[in-house]
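User: Second chain of the day. Same drill as before.
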Amino acid sequence: MQLSTPEPWDRPVSHEARQQSKITAARRAIDVALQTRFLWISREEHEAIFSCEDLDHLQHLLIRILTVDTVDELFPEPG
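Assistant: Same format as last time:
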């Protein structure tokens, strides 16, 4: 009897891989929400979102998108 190679969905997934999948999903959700609410964001704002590795921050940002009136409220100028 020959054992078959497990399918990709049968393989154990590491905590890090699961966490990265959640971060990727949060980034995509933020991108869709921003495009839906505000039509566009600056390149700098886009890069800030897609370089963020903090899932809690991304989730907070996604919730804030639903409550702010402008993109500027999401990304206040420093100072």
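The chain is about 60% helix and 0% strand.

User: Great, on to the next one.
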